[in-house]
Amino acid sequence: MDGFLLIDKPEGWPSRKAMNVVQRRLRVRGGYEGTLDPFASGLLLVGVGRATRFFPFFAHLLKEYVATLKLGEETDTLDVEGKVVERADVPVLSEEEVRSVLRMFVGTYEQIPPRYSALKVKGRRAYDLARRGEDFNVRPRKVHVESLELISLEGDTITFRCSVGRGTYVRALGRDIARALGTVGHLTMLRRTAIGDFRVEDAKHPDEVETSDLISPERALYWMDALEISGREGRLFLNGGRVRTRTGDGLYRVFVDGEFVGVGRVVEGLLKPERLLPRR
Question: N or C: which end of the chain has fewer CB within 10 A?
Answer without folding.
Answer: C
